[in-house]
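Worked Example 4.2. Consider the chain below.
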Amino acid sequence: MSGVSLPPAGGPPGAPEADPPPGTPAELALEPEAADERGTSLWRGAWRRLRRDPAAIAGAVVVAAFVLVAVLAPLIAPYEPAGAQWANEVTPSSVPGPSDDHLLGLDSFGSDLLTQLVYGARQSLVIGVVSTVIGLGFGAALGLLAGAFGGWVDVAVMRVVDIMLSIPSLLLAVSIAAVVGPSPTALMIAIGAAQVPIFARLLRGSMLGQRSSDYVLAASSLGLRRRSVVMSHMLPNSLSPVIVQGTLTLATAIIEVAALSYLGLGDPNPTVAEWGRMLVRAQDRLATDPHLAVLPGVCIAVSALGFTLFGEALRESLDPTFRR
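Applying the procedure from the previous section yields the following C-alpha cells:
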C-alpha cells in the first residue's frame, strides 16, 4: 500500500532514545575498570587497583625506602654504630651540628647521628617483622582451631582471646618484656604476644563466614573430610584479611618497638642503635638541640605512616565493598 507511511525504525518522532541493553559496547565503554576486571583473579584485580591508587604508591615508596635503608645500612652509614670517638667534641651546652664529616652532626654521646638513624631502621625492621610473624603464626593457629571445629573448641579459644584483648596491648607488651628482661628477644615476644588475639579473632571470623559458602557446602556434600575442606577451601579463602592486617600491624610494631626501647626494655647493648633510645638520650637537650629528638621521631612517624598507607590501600583493593 503506497499511501501508508511506516514509522522510523528507532520509534516515533520525538520519542526518547531507548537505553542500550546491558552488556552492549556502550555500557562497557562507560565502565572500563569493571570491564577490565571481569574474569581476573582476586589478587590480580587488587594489583591493578593498587597501581592506580596514589596512597598505595606513596606507602609503597616509603616502605621500600625504609627496607632498603635497613638492609643496606652497612653500605649507607658512614661509621660504625655507637662509635663515641667524637665525645670530646660534645659539651654540656652544645652538640656539634652538620659538617662535611657528619652530615647530620653528632648526638649527645659523640656518635654520628646519621649512622644511628640508619642502624636504628634496621633494628626496628627486624624486631617489627619477627614480632608480627610471631603474632600472625600463633594467632592464625588459634583462629584456625576456633573456625574449623567450632563448638566447645571455639568457645574455649575465644575466651582465652577475650582475656588477652581485655589487657591493653602496650601494657601487655611492657609486662612480658619486664618479666623476660631487656633484650631484642623480649621485645619480639612481647610485641608478638600482644598481636596474637587480633589475628586469632580476624581469621576465626573470616572462616566462620566461609562455612556457608557454596563451594564449602559442595565439598562437604561430596564426602570430603573436614580436614580437606578446611585446609583446601576455607583457609586459603580466609587469608586475605589476615595478610592485610599483618601489613597494618607492622606499623604498630614499629611504634611499640620505639616505645619499649624508650622505657628501657630494649637491647641493653649500648652499641646497638635504636630510635627509642635516641629519644631518651635527647631529653636533656630538647631546649638547645631539638633535632636530636625530632629526627628519630620523624623516622618513626614516616615509617609507620608508610606501612599504614599501603595496608589501608591493600585492604580497600581486596574488599569488594570498597570497589567502585
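The chain has 14 helices and no strands. The first helix runs from residue 25 to 30. Compare this with Example 4.1 before moving on.
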